[in-house]
Amino acid sequence: MAAESRYILVTKRDCPTCQLIEPALEELALSAPVRVFNQDGAGFPATAAADVIDDSELAGSWALDVEIVPTLIRYEGETEAGRTEGWDRSAWRALTHLNDLGASLPEFRPGCGSLTRDPGIAPRLAARYGGGGLTARRIDLAPLEDAIETCYERGWSDGLPVVPPTPERVLAMLAGTNRDPGETLGEVPPDLVPVSIEKIAINAVMAGCRPEYLPVVISAVEAALEEPFCMHGLLATTYFSGPMVVVSGPLARRIGMNAGGNALGQGNRANATIGRALQLVIRNVGGGRPGGVDRAALGNPGKYTFCFAEDDDPAWTSLSEDRGFARDETTVTLFAADGVQGIVDQKAREPEPLCRSFAAGLRVVSHPKMVQAADAFLVVSPEHARVFHDAGWSKQRVTERLHELLTIDGSELVQGAGGMAEGLPVKLKGRSLRKFREGGLTLVRAGGSAGMFSAIIAGWGASGEIGSSPVTREVKS
Amino acid sequence: MSETVLLDPGSERDPSQREPRALPLDLSGRTVGLLDISKPRGDVFLDEIASLLEAEGATVTRFRKPTFTRPAPTELRQDIAEQCDLVLEGLAD
Amino acid sequence: MHDINDLDGRGIAGGFVASDEFRDAAKAQGDALGFHARAIYVPHPIQDRTDEEMKALARKAFPAVLDMLRQGQEQDAQA
């Protein structure tokens, strides 16, 4: 039986166990053909008995899916009949049926890691030799083409440079999720193109994401594709809005998102690139581009990226909880958002005057005379939150008080009132109307520890069933 | 890392080769820039092309590279992009 | 070729006219840039032609120029 077998041994010179087993290799090669793939160059092992191949390109080791060196693999014909890792004398003897093999060697020595398992190597090898499950069309660059310039020329960029999506980088990105690269999540507007995990990974690479952000990006895309979010209309509108991503829960901290100082600003890779990746998916997969289906009159700078994390504030419910999830679940919430409008109040020490300042700021969302139109997020900073915490006001109580304060007499809102043509039909003059629809005002906590400023993020004028509602999805690995 | 192969981030509905920008159906009312690369005799050729284009209803604007041996300077390219809808470059031999 | 490539990126479509001696060079350059500009080729040589001959060459090439600027089909002006 042993005489019909042949063997492949994978080694590297740098591994003491590989050097140790050279006598056993000599003995084995006397009984059956042995081919050795050595990972760190030619000239090792120095034996004439075996066929030694320089596998420093790691093609052989990759194809054999080796984790440890030495690995001895026995073949019957073309079929693998068994393998053993490291030096384990009884295992080698059982595999080879050579009962005296390695008599001069110790009984056991563990092996070393295969070079194919070195950090960053696997995606390169998968890209070069296959096996990563990539199916996206490959674009060969000409010799003089610059990859970043090519991304611009092909219309793949939002205006800022993108990271060229090489197969190596995409495979490394896909390591951030357990999901199958071929899994399709739905159709991305406006062109209604099916989007796979692989396409999301490609755009996440381009946006500059790290692989650990990918699950958040995937959930953001899933949320954008939910019908209530109305991504198609949001893209096509002449209004300012674009998708804003709020991440709530433990993963936000684990991947290093910023919920603190400058949370709505620049400088944090996760915040910046997760929001950008979503926009690039809509641009590249969906075909949604300014001047095309995107008809924004002015747009807003958040359409490059608008993503931040909610601060963990034990005194208040989290956004995850408010949206029906557990506090320890990580969620993404998408909101059809415009830009940021600040509210200053450096005097209020009680909830009521601070609520009144917030309400006065919120009154002007879209237009001071428009009600039941746009939703809004109110991002409450730590110094403002402290006023409510000290008085024992829950987030729900603040929200309810704001709704009360934003219940407005129709006479102030109708066309012509205040000398402004804009306004509601005159017949609503005798009514009392709430500024925001039920569920249309959402409070979150974020921001740096100093600064008595909070932020209003106004939404698209078309909210709820006629337009977009905030959508929340759990983030899964 | 080599960047000789990229994965298509998009719908894959467009051609994989980068194609020249789409052209108008009609030249009437369009401004065509004629870019003379400064090789001898090219100007005579372009003069004739200019009058034929004008007969088609196009407006013709003339530009001239300082030398055919190098690409046009950035400023010249900006001028063309600013003033023209289309460009015709010649005459290379 | 570089100019047409650059101008294409600036939003200006177009092409170039060259003598047929330039055909192989244009192909090689286009392959290297990953962008093949629209082109019309006229018979070589150019530099020893009289004005009348150059004008005749232009008139003969013009239908192809027109097609190139309106439709973008690569034409061969040689008949």
What does this structure look like?
The complex is a heterotrimer of chains A (about 475), B (about 90) and C (about 80). With about 475 residues, chain A is α+β, with helices and mostly antiparallel strands. Chain A is built from 16 helices and 21 strands. Chain A has helices spanning about 15-20, 20-30, 60-65, 90-95, 120-130, 145-155, 165-175, 195-205, 215-225, 230-235, 250-255, 270-285, 320, 350-365, 380-390, 395-405; strands spanning about 5-10, 35-40, 50-55, 70, 70-75, 80-85, 85-90, 110, 110-115, 140, 185-190, 195, 240-250, 305-310, 330-345, 375-380, 405-410, 430-435, 440-445, 455-460, 470-475. In chain A, the strands form six sheets. In chain A, strands 13, 14, 15, 16, 19, 20 and 21 form a seven-stranded mixed β-sheet that branches. In chain A, strands 3-2-1-5-6 form a five-stranded mixed β-sheet, with helices on one face. In chain A, α5 (about 120-130) crosses α7 and α7 crosses α8 (about 195-205). Chain A is elongated, with a radius of gyration of 31 Å. In chain B, strands 3-2-4 form a three-stranded parallel β-sheet, sandwiched between helices. Chain B contains two helices and four strands. Chain B has about 90 residues and is α/β, with parallel strands linked by helices. Chain B has a domain at about 30-90. Chain B is extended. Chain C is globular. Chain C has helices at about 1-10, 25-35, 50-70, and strands spanning about 15-20, 40, 75. The longest helix of chain C has 20 residues, at about 50-70. Chain C has a three-stranded parallel β-sheet with strand order 1-2-3. Chain C contains three helices and three strands; from the N terminus they run αβαβαβ. Chain C is an alpha/beta fold. Chain C has one domain. Classes of the chains: A alpha+beta (about 475), B alpha/beta (about 90), C alpha/beta (about 80). The interface of A and B includes residues 139, 151 and 165 of A. β4 of chain B pairs parallel with β1 (about 15-20) of chain C.
